[in-house]
Amino acid sequence: MKSNSIDGTRWELLVRINGREIPSKGNNNYPPNWSQIVKAIEDCIRFKSKININTMNLVNRNKQKGLKMKKIKKNNNLFKNLVKNPPKWWENLKKDKEIIIEIRTDKSKSYIDCYYNGGCILGELDCDRKGNFKGKLHYKYIPIMLNNNGDYVNYNFENQQIDLNHIQPTIPDLNNFDQDMISLIKNQIEYYYPKESEKWYQYQFIQKDSFFIDSEFQINNRKDNNLRIDLVRLDPSVNKIVFIELKLFGNNELFNSNNIKNKMGKNIENQLSLYGNFISKNKDDILQYYKDLFEVKKKLGLLSPEALEIDLDKYSVAEKPLLIVAGCTQKWIDNNAKDLNDRIQDFALGCLYFGKVNDNCNIEQIGKIRNRYIFTI
Predict the structure, then answer these.
(1) So what's the pLDDT on residue 153?
(2) What total number of domains does the chain contain?
(3) H or E segment to which residue 350 belongs
(4) Residues 190 and 172 occupy one common structural domain
(5) CA angle 346, 350, 354 (to 5 degrees)
(6) What's the gap between Cα 318 and its chain centre?
(7) Cα 246 from chain centre
(8) Sequence-ordered alpha helix ranges (H) in the chain
(9) Residue burial 169-190, b: 16+ Cβ < 10 Å; e: rest
(10) How far is CA 201 from CA 36, 193, 324, 326, in A?
(11) Is 229 left (phi over 0), alpha (psi -120 to 50) or beta?
(12) Same domain for 224 and 365?
């Protein structure tokens, strides 16, 4: 019997009777004695009793293979070159307070992504041994200049043909990401992530609150798991690293209970439970990961003065995520907060309800303070 748990861990049940491995053939075509295995498992689930078969072992295959959480390559060529000899375009990106710069890591390397409103202005920034930088930009964010006046262009109907060849579109020189050129890319991104969108709120929180240290944390970088946590914050009120899921008040996942799911099969309870299980199982690795990330961001000059005062040796990882619901009116909160709080209180630290983007997401006190509900710390 093989299964993938909610955090992506692969488990396999190996059963031996009289020293011989008993496989399952599937399609209910069980070999002799397999029925007693099935009955024992069903009894365990039904009555929460122990499985009384001495030769049954539950093996974590990931433990056998030494699978570990991703680690930041703190001394790679990219970070060294950006610190030692920072290019002009890098300094321009850092000066723009609307651009959020994040450290990323996959199995083979650590790199940098730069975001505006959730759109990636510069993705997978890396550097080779010779000091040559490389990165990428999605084509839909590329600004295109047209040699026409007004919003419309005229068709060309000459020679029994119809074309737009006379327009001659051009792509402007990015000029080391100076302010004018970055503005053109931002305008393109705003088309896909406009003001008041969920992504817009997410990155507004990062801009407003100095203690957000990461965004779009992806577990093991396995995209098929859909385990990507929106925000990570250092909470100085409780000395905790807090993972945060952010939802816009109209997000369907907030209204689907465990019994009623949307078309994607998602609801907020399952999502928070998923995150909490991963966090609690990997809290030591997560703490080390963010100590390394903090060190790299400090060297690159990416931390706020407030964050620089933090001593992560005094911090631990909150084992449950925090939910933030943004864009709310007070009437919406009054009508929906109690039901939502009741459904998530076993899976979350609490829920903060905001209309406008707030500059303080601390969880310092259990209970209700205005529209902040903290269940546990």
Answers:
(1) 79
(2) 3
(3) strand 350-353
(4) yes
(5) 145
(6) 16
(7) 10
(8) 34-47, 61-65, 77-84, 88-95, 179-192, 198-208, 268-281, 283-300, 305-308, 330-344
(9) eeeeebeebeeebbebbbebbe
(10) 54, 10, 10, 7
(11) beta
(12) yes
Residues 158 and 202 in one domain: no
**For residue 69, which of 264, 222, 178 has the smallest C-alpha distance?**
222
Q: Of 140, 169, 194, which residue sits at a domain end?
A: 194
Domain final residue pick, 156, 173, 194: 194
Map tokens 């026409």 to a residue: 148
Residue in 215, 213, 374, 174 with CA at minimum distance from that of residue 307: 213
Q: What is the reported pLDDT for 50?
A: 47
Cβ-count burial 334-355 (b if 16+ within 10 Å, e if not): eebbeebbebbbebbbbbbbbe
Classified as helix, coil or strand, 278 is: helix
What is the token pair recorded at 147? 């040699």
CA distance 254 to 249: 8
Q: Which of 142, 108, 102, 100 is nearest to 125 (CA)?
A: 102
Nearest partner of 209 among 319, 359, 81, 342, judged by Cα: 359
Please give the Cα distance from 60 to 10 (Å, whole number): 7
Cβ burial, residue 117 (10 Å; 0-12/13-18/19+): buried
Give pLDDT, residue 158.
81
Is the domain of 214 the same as that of 354?
yes
Ramachandran angles phi, psi of 218, nearest 5° = -110, 125
Q: Which two tokens stand for residue 376?
A: 């546990």
Of the candidates 232, 237, 229, 226, the residue with the CA atom closest to the CA atom of residue 206: 232
Structural domain of 252:
197-374
Q: Residues for the chain: how many in total? A: 377
**What is the per-residue pLDDT for 115?**
96
Is residue 16 located within the same domain as residue 78?
Answer: no
- Amino acid identity of residue 79, one-letter, is F
- Please indicate, yes or no, whether residues 324 and 227 belong to a single structural domain of this protein: yes
CA distances from 76 to 73, 88, 111, 220, 223 (A): 6, 20, 9, 20, 24
Q: Which tokens in the block code for residue 274? A: 């998923």
Q: Which residue has the tokens 């327009």?
A: 167
Across the 377 residues of the chain, what is the mean pLDDT of every consecutive 10-residue run?
A: 46 55 51 60 56 45 51 94 96 95 91 95 95 94 81 81 79 87 94 91 94 86 64 96 96 75 68 92 94 97 96 96 96 95 96 91 86 93
